[in-house]
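Something for you to look into today, if you have time. Just paste the record in under my message, thanks.
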Amino acid sequence: MSTVRAMDYVAIRERSIAKLARWQLSDPGVLPLHSAEDFDWARDAAAVAARCHAIAAALAIQQGAPHERIRQALRDNDLERWLAGRELRFLLYLEGEADMGDEERHQTTVDISWREEALWTLMWSLELVDDLPPDELCSREAFYERLAPDLDPAKGRSDVLLRPLAEIVSMLDFYYCLHWVARNAQYHGQPWNSKIAPGAVLERRRALEWLFQDVAWEDVDLGA
């Protein structure tokens, strides 16, 4: 990937630091820079769209849609394999094929609800969302329809393309830095901007990292 080799990762980090400063957040300091090796492998637009459809299905069952209808849509569109492990487990629980205690069920529904932010981010990567300002949560409108008219994955657009790699890498570096600041605020009491939801930061970073990691969704490396 010649584009990856040509990117200036110092300049990318400088832009991330400048964006952090707009929200009165600290310089991440010693946080390692990205390098070309981090982006040697990347998913294609079709894979990203498929994961978007799977997240939308998980959100639908979390919000009370009939699980029979969602399961059928997943099967009909070859999307079951794009569900994350916990999403599939929740579907199996609703179908009576898996057991969940109250605590696990509650935490699973909370975690799936945050996947809206991951869906918003992946749709940004497909140029179906304009920007990802950290102090704004995803749209309250039915934005998934931008990819799947009538909320039907069978009608899903096949013409979507990924944004230029440089744009995605810059956004990933920013959310990498922002996640680091969020964790320092949580564990070490460093300043944080209350307008920014740490849960959204986590899900957005996970989605962006997943684009460049050939692992299952829940195995994405979110370390420093």
Q: What stands out?
A: The chain has two domains: 2-42+162-219, 45-155. The mean pLDDT is 95.
